[in-house]
Structures are given as C-alpha cells and as structure tokens.
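On clarity, I found the account of how folds are encoded harder to follow than it need be. An entry of this sort, consisting of the sequence and the corresponding backbone structure tokens, reads as follows:
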Amino acid sequence: MNEPVSKWHDLLMNNNYLNDFILFEDDRDKLIWFITNYTQYLVRKGANEVVPLYGNAINSLERFIYQVNLSLPVSYHLGSRLDALYDLLLNFETEPEGRFIIWNDSSYLFNNNKADFENIFEKLIVAAYCNRNGISTIKEDGTRYKVDQRNILIFNNNKLKDIRYLLDKEYFIPSIDEQWQLDKIMDFNLIELIEV
C-alpha cells in the first residue's frame, strides 16, 4: 500500500500468470485507496481501456449491462440479454493493448442477486480468457484478435470461501480452435493489500 502505484501494477502484471484478479478487503479505506489510485494509474498510463463499474448501483443483469454499455467504446445500444453482454465483453470494435474491467463492490450483486452475479461472472471471465489468448475471432486481415483483457472483482464484505464454488467450477471455452474448446477451471490472482 505504501509503494508507488507503478510497483503495484508491476506486481500484478509482470508475472507468468495471465489471469483475472479478485480482491477481498474488509478495510473500506484501504480498498478505496487502492482501487482509486490503481484505476487512475491505468488511465494515465495509456494504451488501455479502463472500465470502472460501480457495484452498489448494480442490482441486476440489466443494470450491469447498462454500465458496461456506457463504459466500453462501442457503437450500439445493447439490449439486456446475457448473450448480448458476452458479445459486448468480447468487444471487437477496438483493440487496445490492455482492457481492465474493474467491478467495484461486486459483492453487492453477489449478496443480493446471486443468479445474475453468477451469469455475469461467467461471461466476464470467459470473454477475457478468450481475448487474452487470441481464440475469440479472426480479424478481416486474417490475424487473431488479441487483447490483454483482465477483470478485477472487488469484494468488501465477503471472503474467499463465499465464492470458492465459482472458482472451482469448470467453464466452457468457446474457442475458434477446436483443440481449445473445452471445459476449464479458470485460474485467478488473489490480491491482498498489505503495508510493507
């Protein structure tokens, strides 16, 4: 926490693990300090699409889609269907170096509407995995669409044990390559906020 934000970024990104991130933190002040500083760092760094989502305003799939539709650069209004959300999360309209979807207070939907949370969670992690690995689509020029897309889910009043069942579950990967079409347990990087 008391290191420069660039070091936080290096710790999160400069490793051999191309995973999404999950942060559990009970101390609200620490959480706010981390996420506001890290979000602003990603914006200032450039070459990234940064999509902050405000979880306390998300009580359903429709409210989640509303926020994402106004945050990701797309040229169309999105309906409130789950398959439309998946298409939006793949977002082939842009190809930034990195795309960070930061779901603040994701615990709000998890605690109040578990079914919608579980559906959104699956679409988030599968779309990001496919984009990171270049297995979602082929572009017009014949090359693979590839974006280092990461989700950062922020939990304030939950513990790992509360969502463990989602982390231990297999998710279908709808790859354009047959050998990549499989059911897979996804890996995640867990973030712990400490002061050194």
